[in-house]
C-alpha cells in the first residue's frame, strides 16, 4: 500500500520523544489521520501526559486504557503455568506484553475503521517481530508502518532536530544521551544499551528500578504463603486478590528482599546477541512457588513432559508467536496439566533468595506411608524393586558384553 493510500493509522503511543516524533512523522509523511493508543500495563508512569500530547498534535481519537488485569490474567498467568524461561533464565517480561498491545491495536483499528497500524520498535530488535507477527495473525490484510525501517532519522541528533522543527516538546533529560533505555510493565523492568552494552562491565546500582540490592535487604527473612487454584495464584497470606493486585504485592515483597535481578546476554530472534538487565521480583517468587506446588500435585511423567516442552514454549513467546497454532496447542496441554495444581506454598524471602519451606494440597500425590523410613505397613513391597532394576539393567548388561568384545558405545 502506498503512502497516499493510508487514510487512518492506529499508533502504539507512549507519549515519549520517539513515539511523539513518530506521530508527527506519520501525519506529515502519510498525510493521514492518526489514532493513538496508550496502554497501562503497570509500567508505573502517569499516562495522562500522553493524552495531552496527542491532543496537542490534533489527534481526535485517543485511547488510554488500563489493561493491567487483562495483562496478568490472560497473558502472564497462562505463561507462568508453563514455568516459562527463555534460555533457562529470562522470565519473558517484555515478550509477553507485546501481543496484548498488538491485539488491542487491531481491535481499535477495526473499531475506528483504520487501515494501518504503527509501532515504535527499531529494526534491530525483537519487538518489531513480536508486534507485526501478532498484527498479521489477527488481521492478515492490515498495513503495518514501522517508521524506524523507513525514515532517515537515524541518529539522536536528527530525531531532536525533527522534534524542534515540528514544535515537539523535548524534556531536558532527552537532549542528552540517556545512559540506557528502559522498558517496564507490571511483570518486570528491562534496561539495555549504551552504558550496559559491554557485558564484561557489571551494572551500576542506578540501573535497577524495581529492587533493592540483596546486600541491602533485611537480615530477617520474610515468610509468606501463596494459594493456588488450578495453577494460578489467588491469594497471599490467605487474602484473596485479583491477578494484577496479587502480582503487584509480590513485586513489593520481592523488591524489599532484593529478589529478581538478572544480568543476561541473550540470543535475539533477529540473530544478534544482546545484554539486558532484568528485574522480575514478583515473577521470580511466583515461579518458585508454582514449581513447588506442582512438585506434589503433578504426576512424574506429566511433569517431565511439561518440562521438556517448556523451552519450546518459551522460545515461541520470545519470538512473538503468541497467536500461533503451536502456542495454542502447547497452552492446551499445559492448561490440562494444571487441573490438580491447587494448594498452598509457604516461602521464605531472604536477600535475593526464594526458599520453599512447605507445601500442601488436597490433591497431593505425596504419600508418607510409601516414602517413610519407618514401617510402611505394607504400602510398598521393597522386593518389587529387584525385578524393576533387572529389567532396566538388561540393555546395559547386553551393551557391556558387546563393548568388551568390540569397544562399541
UniProtKB/TrEMBL annotation:
<feature type="binding site">
    <location>
        <position position="90"/>
    </location>
    <ligand>
        <name>L-citrulline</name>
    </ligand>
</feature>
<dbReference type="GO" id="GO:0005524">
    <property type="term" value="F:ATP binding"/>
</dbReference>
<protein>
    <recommendedName>
        <fullName>Argininosuccinate synthase</fullName>
        <ecNumber>6.3.4.5</ecNumber>
    </recommendedName>
</protein>
<feature type="binding site">
    <location>
        <position position="120"/>
    </location>
    <ligand>
        <name>ATP</name>
    </ligand>
</feature>
<dbReference type="InterPro" id="IPR048267">
    <property type="entry name" value="Arginosuc_syn_N"/>
</dbReference>
<dbReference type="GO" id="GO:0006526">
    <property type="term" value="P:L-arginine biosynthetic process"/>
</dbReference>
<dbReference type="Pfam" id="PF00764">
    <property type="entry name" value="Arginosuc_synth"/>
</dbReference>
<keyword id="KW-0436">Ligase</keyword>
<dbReference type="Pfam" id="PF20979">
    <property type="entry name" value="Arginosuc_syn_C"/>
</dbReference>
<dbReference type="GO" id="GO:0004055">
    <property type="term" value="F:argininosuccinate synthase activity"/>
</dbReference>
<feature type="binding site">
    <location>
        <begin position="12"/>
        <end position="20"/>
    </location>
    <ligand>
        <name>ATP</name>
    </ligand>
</feature>
<feature type="binding site">
    <location>
        <position position="266"/>
    </location>
    <ligand>
        <name>L-citrulline</name>
    </ligand>
</feature>
<feature type="binding site">
    <location>
        <position position="39"/>
    </location>
    <ligand>
        <name>ATP</name>
    </ligand>
</feature>
<feature type="binding site">
    <location>
        <position position="126"/>
    </location>
    <ligand>
        <name>L-citrulline</name>
    </ligand>
</feature>
<dbReference type="InterPro" id="IPR023434">
    <property type="entry name" value="Arginosuc_synth_type_1_subfam"/>
</dbReference>
<comment type="pathway">
    <text>Amino-acid biosynthesis; L-arginine biosynthesis; L-arginine from L-ornithine and carbamoyl phosphate: step 2/3.</text>
</comment>
<feature type="binding site">
    <location>
        <position position="190"/>
    </location>
    <ligand>
        <name>L-citrulline</name>
    </ligand>
</feature>
<feature type="binding site">
    <location>
        <position position="126"/>
    </location>
    <ligand>
        <name>L-aspartate</name>
    </ligand>
</feature>
<keyword id="KW-0963">Cytoplasm</keyword>
<comment type="similarity">
    <text>Belongs to the argininosuccinate synthase family. Type 1 subfamily.</text>
</comment>
<feature type="binding site">
    <location>
        <position position="278"/>
    </location>
    <ligand>
        <name>L-citrulline</name>
    </ligand>
</feature>
<feature type="binding site">
    <location>
        <position position="122"/>
    </location>
    <ligand>
        <name>L-aspartate</name>
    </ligand>
</feature>
<keyword id="KW-0547">Nucleotide-binding</keyword>
<dbReference type="InterPro" id="IPR001518">
    <property type="entry name" value="Arginosuc_synth"/>
</dbReference>
<dbReference type="GO" id="GO:0005737">
    <property type="term" value="C:cytoplasm"/>
</dbReference>
<dbReference type="InterPro" id="IPR048268">
    <property type="entry name" value="Arginosuc_syn_C"/>
</dbReference>
<feature type="binding site">
    <location>
        <position position="130"/>
    </location>
    <ligand>
        <name>L-citrulline</name>
    </ligand>
</feature>
<dbReference type="InterPro" id="IPR018223">
    <property type="entry name" value="Arginosuc_synth_CS"/>
</dbReference>
<feature type="binding site">
    <location>
        <position position="127"/>
    </location>
    <ligand>
        <name>L-aspartate</name>
    </ligand>
</feature>
<dbReference type="GO" id="GO:0000053">
    <property type="term" value="P:argininosuccinate metabolic process"/>
</dbReference>
<keyword id="KW-0055">Arginine biosynthesis</keyword>
<dbReference type="GO" id="GO:0000050">
    <property type="term" value="P:urea cycle"/>
</dbReference>
<dbReference type="InterPro" id="IPR024074">
    <property type="entry name" value="AS_cat/multimer_dom_body"/>
</dbReference>
<feature type="domain" description="Arginosuccinate synthase C-terminal">
    <location>
        <begin position="180"/>
        <end position="397"/>
    </location>
</feature>
<feature type="binding site">
    <location>
        <position position="181"/>
    </location>
    <ligand>
        <name>L-citrulline</name>
    </ligand>
</feature>
<feature type="domain" description="Arginosuccinate synthase-like N-terminal">
    <location>
        <begin position="8"/>
        <end position="169"/>
    </location>
</feature>
<feature type="binding site">
    <location>
        <position position="95"/>
    </location>
    <ligand>
        <name>L-citrulline</name>
    </ligand>
</feature>
<dbReference type="InterPro" id="IPR014729">
    <property type="entry name" value="Rossmann-like_a/b/a_fold"/>
</dbReference>
<keyword id="KW-0067">ATP-binding</keyword>
<keyword id="KW-0028">Amino-acid biosynthesis</keyword>
<comment type="subunit">
    <text>Homotetramer.</text>
</comment>
